[in-house]
C-alpha cells in the first residue's frame, strides 16, 4: 500500500478522530492508553518501528487528545476504587468495543483494509478487542503492559488503588506536577523527570480532558473479561510486559499470552508501566518479528 493521505482528522464511527501517519510500508496502527494522546507514544519508539519498514498510524482515542469528547458524568476516583476493590460492575457511556470500532472506522476512512495493531495498557485492551470483534482487519497483534479484563490478574497494587482513591481531581495548573507524582510511582528505573515535564507541558497545552480519563476508566471496568474470546483468536501475537509494573501487574501479561493461542511472551526486568528508551529497539524488533510471522500467512478472504 502506498502513501496514505495525511489528514489531521476524519469522521468515523460517528465521531471525529485525530490521527497522524509517519513512514512507508505496511500499515501499523498504534493504540494508546488511559487518558493518553497520540503524542504520548515515545517518538524514539515510533522512529524504530518506521525504520523497520512500517507506515505508523497514531490516533487520539475518543475522550482524549483532539478526538471527540463525550459528556456523561465520569465516575469519581472513589467510585473507581470501590469497583476495583469490591469487583463491582460499573455503568459506562461506552465500552472498549466502541473504542475498537473507532479504530476500525479510522482504518476504513483512510483506506486501510488490514493493519498490524500495537496497543499499550488500555490500548492493548482495545487492540485485543479489535482482534476479537474484527479478526479480518488485524494482521498481527502486539499487546504491551496490558491484561485480559479478568479481575483476577493484572490488577494494580493495593497501594496504588488506595492512593488513587484519595487523589483529588487535578486542575489544569497543577496537572504536570500531579502527573509527575503518579508516573514516579508506576515507571521504572529509566524514568526521566525532566523529559516527562517537557512532554507533559506539551500534552496539557494540546488537550486537557480529565473527565475523559474517568469515562475511559469506566469503559475498562464495564467491558469485563475477554479471556474466553482471546482463546478463540487466530492471529500472530506478541505480549510485552515489564516485570516491575505496579499498575497492570505482570500477571496480566502472562494471562494474555496464555489465553491467545501461540502468543509469544516477552518480559523486561527493567520495565514497569512505561516504554523505556533502553528497550525501544527490542520492542520494535518484537513487533517486526511478529509481523513477519503474519506476512508468511496466506490472507483469508
Q: What is CATH's topology name?
A: Rossmann fold
Instruction: Please tell me how large the radius of gyration is.
Output: 18 Å
**What count of structural domains?**
1
Taken in chain order, the helices and strands follow as EEEHEHHEHEHHHHHEHEH
Q: Largest sheet at a glance?
A: 8 strands, mixed
Integer average pLDDT: 94
Classify the secondary structure makeup into a structural class: alpha/beta
Can you tell me the CATH class? Alpha Beta
Query: How would you write the strand order of the largest sheet?
Result: 1-2-4-3-5-6-7-8
Q: Helical element count?
A: 11
Distance between the termini: 18 Å
CATH architecture level-2 label = 3-Layer(aba) Sandwich
How many strand units?
Answer: 8
**Strand-residue proportion:** 15-25%
Determine the CATH superfamily.
Answer: Alpha/Beta hydrolase fold, catalytic domain
Helical content stands at 40-55%
Low-confidence stretches: 1-6
Name the shape in a single word. Answer: globular
Describe this structure in words.
This protein has a single domain, classed as Alpha/Beta hydrolase fold, catalytic domain (Rossmann fold), CATH 3.40.50. 45% of the residues are buried. The chain has helices spanning 43-50, 77-86, 96-109, 122-133, 158-166, 175-186, 193-206, 210-223, 227-230, 250-259, 280-295; strands at residues 9-12, 15-22, 26-31, 54-59, 115-120, 138-144, 237-242, 264-268. Strand 5, helix 4 (122-133) and strand 6 (138-144) form a beta-alpha-beta unit. Residues 1-6 have low confidence and may be disordered. It contains eleven helices and eight strands. Helices cover 41% and strands 16% of the residues.
Amino acid at each position: 500500500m502506498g502513501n496514505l493521505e495525511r489528514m489531521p482528522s476524519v469522521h468515523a464511527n460517528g465521531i471525529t478522530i485525530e490521527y497522524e501517519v509517519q513512514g512507508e510500508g505496511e500499515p501499523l496502527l498504534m493504540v494508546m492508553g488511559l487518558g493518553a494522546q497520540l503524542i504520548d507514544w515515545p517518538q524514539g519508539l515510533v522512529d524504530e518501528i518506521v525504520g523497520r519498514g512500517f507506515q505508523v498510524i497514531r490516533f487520539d482515542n475518543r475522550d482524549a487528545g483532539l478526538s471527540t469528547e463525550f459528556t456523561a458524568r465520569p465516575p469519581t476516583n472513589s467510585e473507581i476504587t470501590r469497583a476495583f476493590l469490591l469487583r463491582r460492575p460499573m455503568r459506562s457511556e461506552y465500552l472498549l468495543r466502541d473504542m475498537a470500532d473507532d479504530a476500525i472506522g479510522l482504518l476504513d476512512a483512510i483506506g486501510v483494509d488490514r493493519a498490524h495493531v500495537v496497543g499499550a495498557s488500555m490500548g492493548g485492551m482495545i487492540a485485543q478487542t479489535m482482534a476479537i470483534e474484527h479478526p479480518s482487519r488485524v494482521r498481527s497483534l502486539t499487546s504491551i503492559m496490558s491484561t485480559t479484563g479478568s479481575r483476577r490478574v493484572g490488577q494494580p497494587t493495593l497501594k496504588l488503588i488506595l492512593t488513587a482513591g484519595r487523589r483529588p481531581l487535578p486542575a489544569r495548573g497543577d496537572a504536570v506536577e500531579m502527573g509527575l507524582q503518579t508516573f514516579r510511582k508506576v515507571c521504572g528505573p529509566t524514568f526521566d523527570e525532566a523529559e516527562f515535564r517537557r512532554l507533559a507541558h506539551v500534552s496539557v497545552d494540546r488537550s486537557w480532558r480529565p473527565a475523559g480519563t474517568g469515562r475511559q476508566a469506566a469503559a475498562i471496568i464495564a467491558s469485563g473479561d475477554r479471556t474466553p474470546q482471546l482463546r478463540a483468536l487466530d492471529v500472530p501475537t506478541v505480549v510485552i510486559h515489564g516485570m516491575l509494573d505496579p499498575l497492570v501487574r505482570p500477571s496480566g501479561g502472562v494471562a494474555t499470552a496464555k489465553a491467545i493461542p501461540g502468543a509469544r511472551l516477552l518480559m523486561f526486568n527493567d520495565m514497569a508501566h512505561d516504554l523505556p528508551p533502553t528497550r525501544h529497539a527490542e520492542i520494535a524488533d518484537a513487533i517486526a518479528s511478529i509481523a513477519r510471522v503474519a506476512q508468511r500467512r496466506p490472507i483469508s478472504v
